Amino acid sequence: MWCTSCALAIEGSLKRLSGLHDVSVHYPSATLYVNGMPTATGFSVLASHIKRLGYRLTALEPVADAHARLEEESRYLTLRLIVGALFGMWAMLASILIYAGALPSEQVEQIVAWVSGAFSLPVVLFSGLPFYRAGWRTILAKRPGMDVLVSLGVWGAVTVSIGLLANGSSEVYFDTAVMLIVLLLVGRLVETLCRHRGLKALDALALPDGNVNAWQHERWQSLPIGDVSRGMRVELAPGEVVALDGMLESPGWLDTASLTGESLPCYVSSGQSVYAGCRYLGTAPLVIQVSAGVGQRRLDRLCDEMRRYQAKKGEMQKLADRFAAWLSPLALVLAMLTLPVALLLGLGWEEAFVRALSVLVVACPCAVGLAVPLASLAGSGQAMQQGIALRDPGALETLARLRSVALDKTGTLTNGHHSVVDWQARQGVDAANLHRKLSAAVVGSDHPLAQALARWPGSQPTPLKEQVSEQLIEINESPGEGRRVQLESGEWLTVGSISWLAKQHIVLPPQAEDVTQPHASQVVLADADGWLATFYLSDQPVDDAGSSVKRLLASGYVVAMISGDRQGPVSWLAERIGLTREACYAQRAPEAKARLLQALPSPTLYVGDGLNDTLSLAAADVGIAPLNASNAAREGAAAQLTTAGVGGVVRIISIAKRTRRIMVQNLFFSALYNTLALGIVLIMAIPPLVAVLAMAASSLSVTLNAARLAWSEADDGA
Hints:
The chain is an alpha+beta fold.
């Protein structure tokens, strides 16, 4: 595609096909989005129809191929721009000499006018060829657009100039045709570079191709990453980047900064999931059982979602398209009417043709077509760079008008797993002995609280289960309540809830339970001498929960926490992050969550991670899934955070406001320009060259305004 007119022509032609409910052609990303009956959305059906218009449809290209395509397009534009600038410079110089009256005689002016026409020929015939081709294609699609106006403007200027030369006049307009082509080529080149930069956001989701060490035919061998399928085992060398999603067969330390933004390494236990993009920090090889191959990885899905987002259009883009769709035919009608009206008013043929030519040039809706898509592309690129992957095209526009924000608790405002926040032990027990017995009591347990105790204290360089020196002879476990283990020395240890230890006839002293911490889960450890220690565990808030909530409140949003958890933990967390008790709702079922959300001021944003949040994500105007959200939550959300915490919520709101501001500015000024310019050129004579400069300035201003958003740094305020 050559410009937004091409996109509108393809879109309009496809919309006339039966069986298609929704069609969107996104020019900046060169992507087609269709929704309809299977018989109408088949690739061969769409490709054959598009081919008749002179375009080619291919499968969704990888990011690397998109870069290559835009680089080729940039070289194509650069070559035509060089030819246009080189020959156009001499054509312009000749015209300036004539306009300035710097030539000694009319005969010399006539010769210089012919020279101007000669130098304009390479520009008109070579540099302007893409405009004529695109204009013809849009006519075939019955959606004449900007390129038709450009083509008519160029050839109108050439025709008028040749007619003037034939009549012996040297006041030619070859410079108008040259400037129209050269300035539009400059705008297209700048626009292509902006599109190229928009793809940079997807580079963060692309992993390099290469070979991995996979287990096949009873031995380890190097295989291309594309040949590794689900279920195969892959070996990671120390320092190697994880290339495929999978589950660890043994525990290890991983650097997840590239995927989650975490600055500290993360210890991942065996059986836990790891995702492509992390880096293994261990000293010995680590084996992963692949759960998703190339094309199915989490990063691949995020990339595809971003591409689908770019292909669809929001309300402001649809408004811009509607404006551009009627502007081009209107300009053609006005240009055709200008000629006879000018003649009826007593103007000569020369001036009448010049008036009609100016109408054609000034009406080119380049800026209108670029107003919204470039801003949207820049905004989505900024979002991805800030750790937010957008899926819904209307999300940015809705987020910019947001009034209320509701957040889930567990896994969203909190880490999603418990950790020890306090403890007390029997008098006289030394820390080393306590650590040894606790490690022996919880080692191997799948219970989340037991795993949290195995990680305590957090300052330990290795998990406690690796410090167990005694073998366990016997393990008796009551799922969800507690367990008893017998050490090699014969000693029995008991760990579990207070109520379960009471059933085991273990007498607990008054200090074994701290009633001042109702928010915490209490786990008791006992040995042969009775009560040994009580540990208080809580799901801690994410690092940026408090600061993010405070910024949202300071920005005037209604902020609420809606959770299915108990009132105690909810109230404790609210106090920690700065929410009032009235803004927190505990023990709410999924249906109740959705009803509460709909009662908040609209538009609403909901942030949730679990299966029980899917209804609320659908009920909200915009849903956001945090980093470790379930598949169901991710599918129901309009955006997903790719970094830990909830700070991305504040950042995406800020980006959305700035993006919508750029959209409104672009759309308003481009529409105002075209409307006023058409009115002015109809009532007064404007030289075609001035019309060209004004049209080009409008298009460049829109492009640079969108580029300002792409190149600026997002702030943290909402």
